[in-house]
Amino acid sequence: MAPPHVLTAPSDPIPPDGTIVVVGASLAGLRAAEELRHDHHGGPVIVVGDEVHPPYDRPPLSKQLLAGTWDVERVHHHAPDKLDTLGIEFRLGLRADGLDVGGRQVHLADGSSLDFDGLIVATGARARRLPGTEDVDGVFVLRTLDDCLALRSRLDSFGEDARVVVIGAGFIGAEVAATCHGRGAKVTVVEALETPLANVLGTEMGAACAGLHGDNGVELRTGIGVAGIAPGAGDPVEVTLADGTVLPADVVVVGIGVVPATDWLDGSELTVSDGVVCDGSLFAAPGVVAAGDIARWWHRGLGQELRIEHWTNATESGPRAARNLLVGSAAAVSYEPVPFFWSDQYGVKIQMVGRPEPGDEVVVVDGSVEERRLVALYRRGDRLSAALAFSRPRQLMGYRPLVEAQAPFDEALALARS
C-alpha cells in the first residue's frame, strides 16, 4: 500500500542561523526543541504554549499528583534554571490561532506573528467533554496540570468519603478510578462498551482489565451510556444513565478520550484529518513537521497511517521531527517506532508493545488472567503483532525485538518456552 501523503515539493535544510518555531510546549515540543540544540542549531528556537506552565509530564496527573504523593515541582521536566541554559525562548500562556505556511508565519492570539524558517507542530490533544456539562460544578476532565489540581482540590474538600463517578473505562478513566479508590473514595465507573478497552486490547484482555476494578471493590457498569449530568437536588451532582438509573456523586470525571488540537490550523495549507497528516518522515509541508499526539504519519514498517497518543511516542517523535527538519526531506530518516505504552492501575503495571488489531488471536504464555500476572502474545496470521504484560515488565521486553521484526509467531512461542 502506498503512503497517502507525499510532499509536493522537497523540504530544504534549515539554515544554521534560521528561526525555528515550536508550537506546543508539550513533551514532544520540548524534546524537539532540546534536540535542535543538541544538534547544534545556532538560530533562534521559540516555543509557544497556551498553558502558563513550563513543560511537564502528563502520566503523573492521573496517578501520583492526583493522589497527593507528589508535589507540582516533580512533574516539570526541568527546573527553570535548566530551561534557561538551553537557549530557548519560551512564550507561555499564549495561544497560536493561525498558520500561513507559504508566508512562513505563525499567528498568535495577542495579534502578533512569528516568522519562521522551520516549524514544529506539537500542540497535542484536548480532552473530550460531554456536551452540556461544561458549566456543571463538580464535573472534571483530566488533561492538563490545572485540571489535575482542580480535581485534587475537589477530592480534598470531600475527604475520604467522596463519591466519585468516572465516565469511561479507558486507560485514563481506569487510572483515575484506581487513584481515587486509593484515596478512600467510593468509586463507580460507567463504560458504554460491553468490555472496556476491547477496541485496544481485544475482548479477552479487556475483560482482564475490567476485572481489576472488581478485585478492588470499585463498581463497574458496562454496556450503558450516560443520558445526562446535572446539579442534584440533594447531592452536588447527579449522573443519569441511559436506563434511568441515577448515580449521586460529589465528583464526576469524564474520561472519554481526546481529540487532536488542530483548531488553530483551520484555513492553513496543512492537511488535517484526525491530526496533522504527515509523510513517513513527519513532514506535513516543506519546512513543517509535526510530532506527538497531533501527528498522523505513515509508518512504513507497519504499512499504515498511525496517530499515537502515548508518552513514548512523544519522547521519540519530537527528536526525530527536529532532526529531519534540520537536514531536509532528502536526508530525512523515516519514523518507524515500535508502539509501546503502559498504565498503572491498582498496583498492577499494564504494558503493551506493538499494535494489535481486531481479529488477532491472543495466547497467554506466562501466568494467568486469574492471578493478574501474565504475558499474552497476539498472533496475526503467522506473525507476532503485539505482546501484553500484567506486572511482567522484564518478560515483556524480551519480546520487543520480535514484535519490531514482525517475527514468526512460532519464534515467539519458542522464546516463551525457553
What's a quick, concise take on this entry?
The chain has 418 residues and is of the alpha/beta class. The chain is 24% helix and 30% strand. Helix 1 runs parallel beside helix 8 (311-327).
Give an overview of the whole structure:
- With about 425 residues, this protein is of the alpha/beta class.
- About 25% of the residues lie in helices and about 30% in strands.
- The protein is built from eleven helices and 27 strands.
- The protein has helices spanning about 25-40, 65, 80-85, 145-160, 170-180, 200, 205-215, 310-325, 395, 400-405, 410-415, and strands at about 20-25, 45-50, 90, 95-100, 105-110, 115, 120, 125, 140, 165, 185-190, 220, 225-230, 235-240, 245-250, 250-255, 260, 275, 285, 290, 295-300, 305, 340-345, 350-355, 360-370, 375-380, 385-390.
- The strands form seven sheets. The protein has a six-stranded mixed sheet with strand order 3-2-1-7-20-19, with helices on one face. Strands 9-16-10-11-12 form a five-stranded parallel sheet, with helices on one face. It has a five-stranded antiparallel sheet with strand order 23-24-27-26-25, with helices on both faces.
- Strand 14 (about 235-240) and strand 15 (about 245-250) form a beta hairpin.
- Helix 1 packs parallel to helix 8.
- The longest helix is centred in the C-terminal third of the chain and has 17 residues, at about 310-325.
- The protein is globular and about 60 Å long.
